[in-house]
Amino acid sequence: MEDKKLSAREAALIAQARRESEARKAGLPAAARPASLGAPQPPPREKRAQTPEERLARLMAEEHAETERRKKKMRRYGIFIPAAIIALFALWVLRAPRQRR
């Protein structure tokens, strides 16, 4: 791999990966590893396939949460927008007779 084609960030990432690899190969304990490595990550768990009931329950919970957000938004705007329209209409009605004089 040519280092001339790599950006500074990419070169730093490759150097860090090499240091991590060397530390793992050497079998250094966690205390002796460089600070950039941090704590060793546990191996990722394999996800088991969800049953149709679990998927349906998850989808229903997501839909319920979305409905609650929409209802909250509608309550918020459903009060202020009509009130603003009525206020503008009231101001127009009160102002209309004054313009005729």
Q: Can you walk me through this structure?
A:
- With about 100 residues, the protein is an all-alpha fold.
- The protein folds into two domains: about 1-35; about 55-100.
- The chain contains two helices and no strands.
- The protein is elongated and about 90 Å long.
- The termini are far apart.
Task: Give me the secondary-structure topology.
Blueprint: H1 8-26, H2 52-100
Average per-residue pLDDT, rounded, comes to: 80
What series of H and E elements makes up the topology?
HH
The N- and C-terminal alpha carbons lie at a distance of: 87 Å
**Care to count the β-strands?**
0
Which ranges are low-confidence, i.e. pLDDT below 50, for 5 or more consecutive residues? none
Shape call: elongated
User: Strand count, sense and closure of the main sheet?
Assistant: none
The tally of structural domains comes to 2
What proportion of the residues is helical, as a percent range?
55-70%
| Secondary structural class | mainly alpha
Count up the helices: 2
